[in-house]
Amino acid sequence: FVQLIITGGANPQLLSTELTLSLLVMVVLGGAGSRWGAIIGGVVYVLLDNRLQELSTSPTIADLPAVLRVPLSQPLFVLGTLFILVVYFPPGGITAIGGRVAGRRARRRAGRPSSSLGGGDSRPPGDLRPGGDLRPGGDSRASTG
User: Fold this and answer.
1) Distances from the Cα of 62 to the Cαs of 27, 48, 77, 115, in angstroms?
2) Which of 64, 67, 78, 124 is deepest in the core (most CB within 10 A)?
3) pLDDT in tens, 25-42
4) What angle do CA 51, 6, 17 make, to 5 degrees?
5) What is the pTM of this model?
Protein backbone atom coordinates (compact mmCIF):
# COMPACT_ATOMS: atom_id res chain seq x y z
CA PHE A 1 0.00 0.00 0.00
CA VAL A 2 2.78 2.43 0.95
CA GLN A 3 4.70 1.57 -2.20
CA LEU A 4 1.57 2.20 -4.27
CA ILE A 5 1.30 5.69 -2.79
CA ILE A 6 4.99 6.42 -3.32
CA THR A 7 5.13 5.24 -6.94
CA GLY A 8 1.77 6.79 -7.81
CA GLY A 9 0.37 3.75 -9.58
CA ALA A 10 0.25 0.00 -9.76
CA ASN A 11 2.05 -2.30 -12.15
CA PRO A 12 2.83 -6.04 -12.17
CA GLN A 13 6.49 -5.48 -11.33
CA LEU A 14 5.51 -4.28 -7.85
CA LEU A 15 4.51 -7.80 -6.85
CA SER A 16 7.62 -9.68 -7.86
CA THR A 17 8.59 -13.04 -6.44
CA GLU A 18 11.59 -11.51 -4.70
CA LEU A 19 9.44 -8.93 -2.89
CA THR A 20 6.89 -11.56 -1.86
CA LEU A 21 9.57 -13.90 -0.50
CA SER A 22 11.30 -11.03 1.29
CA LEU A 23 8.05 -10.09 3.03
CA LEU A 24 7.48 -13.71 4.01
CA VAL A 25 10.98 -14.01 5.46
CA MET A 26 10.49 -10.75 7.40
CA VAL A 27 7.29 -12.00 9.01
CA VAL A 28 8.70 -15.43 9.87
CA LEU A 29 11.95 -14.00 11.26
CA GLY A 30 10.09 -11.66 13.58
CA GLY A 31 7.26 -13.99 14.50
CA ALA A 32 4.07 -14.47 12.58
CA GLY A 33 1.81 -14.74 15.62
CA SER A 34 2.78 -11.52 17.36
CA ARG A 35 1.88 -7.90 16.88
CA TRP A 36 5.47 -6.68 16.68
CA GLY A 37 6.89 -9.72 14.89
CA ALA A 38 6.58 -8.40 11.34
CA ILE A 39 8.05 -5.03 12.31
CA ILE A 40 11.01 -6.54 14.18
CA GLY A 41 11.54 -9.08 11.40
CA GLY A 42 11.46 -6.33 8.78
CA VAL A 43 14.02 -4.24 10.63
CA VAL A 44 16.33 -7.23 11.17
CA TYR A 45 15.96 -8.37 7.55
CA VAL A 46 16.70 -4.94 6.06
CA LEU A 47 19.67 -4.33 8.36
CA LEU A 48 21.13 -7.77 7.65
CA ASP A 49 20.51 -7.48 3.92
CA ASN A 50 22.27 -4.11 3.72
CA ARG A 51 25.15 -5.21 5.94
CA LEU A 52 25.60 -8.51 4.09
CA GLN A 53 25.66 -6.67 0.73
CA GLU A 54 28.56 -4.56 2.02
CA LEU A 55 30.30 -7.55 3.57
CA SER A 56 30.04 -9.67 0.42
CA THR A 57 32.31 -7.29 -1.50
CA SER A 58 34.77 -6.66 1.33
CA PRO A 59 38.43 -7.74 1.18
CA THR A 60 37.88 -9.86 4.30
CA ILE A 61 35.54 -12.22 2.42
CA ALA A 62 37.76 -12.15 -0.69
CA ASP A 63 40.71 -13.48 1.34
CA LEU A 64 38.79 -16.51 2.64
CA PRO A 65 39.18 -19.99 1.13
CA ALA A 66 36.73 -20.76 -1.70
CA VAL A 67 34.66 -23.08 0.52
CA LEU A 68 33.72 -20.11 2.73
CA ARG A 69 34.09 -17.27 0.22
CA VAL A 70 31.47 -18.49 -2.25
CA PRO A 71 28.51 -18.86 0.19
CA LEU A 72 29.43 -15.78 2.24
CA SER A 73 29.60 -13.63 -0.89
CA GLN A 74 25.91 -14.41 -1.54
CA PRO A 75 23.76 -12.42 0.92
CA LEU A 76 20.61 -14.36 -0.02
CA PHE A 77 22.33 -17.62 0.93
CA VAL A 78 23.17 -16.25 4.38
CA LEU A 79 19.64 -14.86 4.84
CA GLY A 80 18.15 -18.18 3.70
CA THR A 81 20.29 -20.07 6.20
CA LEU A 82 19.17 -17.69 8.94
CA PHE A 83 15.55 -18.22 7.88
CA ILE A 84 15.91 -22.01 8.14
CA LEU A 85 17.56 -21.73 11.57
CA VAL A 86 14.81 -19.45 12.89
CA VAL A 87 12.09 -21.76 11.60
CA TYR A 88 13.79 -24.79 13.14
CA PHE A 89 15.03 -23.53 16.53
CA PRO A 90 12.73 -20.71 17.73
CA PRO A 91 9.60 -21.50 15.67
CA GLY A 92 7.81 -18.38 16.88
CA GLY A 93 10.52 -16.10 15.50
CA ILE A 94 12.55 -13.46 17.30
CA THR A 95 9.60 -12.34 19.41
CA ALA A 96 9.15 -15.90 20.72
CA ILE A 97 12.68 -15.76 22.15
CA GLY A 98 11.68 -12.64 24.09
CA GLY A 99 8.54 -14.40 25.33
CA ARG A 100 10.54 -17.38 26.55
CA VAL A 101 13.01 -15.15 28.42
CA ALA A 102 10.12 -13.23 30.03
CA GLY A 103 8.47 -16.53 31.04
CA ARG A 104 11.64 -17.78 32.70
CA ARG A 105 12.04 -14.53 34.60
CA ALA A 106 8.44 -14.73 35.78
CA ARG A 107 8.97 -18.33 36.99
CA ARG A 108 12.08 -17.30 38.90
CA ARG A 109 10.21 -14.46 40.59
CA ALA A 110 7.38 -16.81 41.50
CA GLY A 111 9.85 -19.16 43.17
CA ARG A 112 9.42 -22.06 40.77
CA PRO A 113 12.68 -23.40 39.36
CA SER A 114 13.07 -23.27 35.59
CA SER A 115 14.68 -25.97 33.49
CA SER A 116 17.70 -23.75 32.77
CA LEU A 117 18.60 -23.60 36.48
CA GLY A 118 18.77 -27.38 36.82
CA GLY A 119 16.41 -27.61 39.76
CA GLY A 120 13.27 -29.71 39.72
CA ASP A 121 11.57 -31.51 36.89
CA SER A 122 10.06 -29.02 34.46
CA ARG A 123 8.32 -31.63 32.28
CA PRO A 124 4.54 -31.70 32.22
CA PRO A 125 2.80 -34.55 34.06
CA GLY A 126 2.33 -37.58 31.86
CA ASP A 127 5.47 -36.92 29.81
CA LEU A 128 6.69 -40.23 28.38
CA ARG A 129 10.25 -39.18 27.65
CA PRO A 130 13.00 -41.08 29.52
CA GLY A 131 12.71 -40.34 33.22
CA GLY A 132 9.05 -39.34 32.88
CA ASP A 133 6.27 -40.79 34.99
CA LEU A 134 2.55 -41.07 34.38
CA ARG A 135 1.64 -39.95 37.89
CA PRO A 136 0.84 -36.22 38.13
CA GLY A 137 3.97 -34.43 39.26
CA GLY A 138 5.79 -37.74 39.65
CA ASP A 139 9.35 -38.47 38.67
CA SER A 140 10.40 -42.08 38.24
CA ARG A 141 14.04 -41.16 38.87
CA ALA A 142 13.21 -40.13 42.44
CA SER A 143 11.15 -43.22 43.33
CA THR A 144 12.72 -46.40 44.60
CA GLY A 145 10.85 -49.34 43.22
Assistant:
1) 32, 19, 16, 43
2) 78
3) 888 888 887 888 888 888
4) 55
5) 0.59
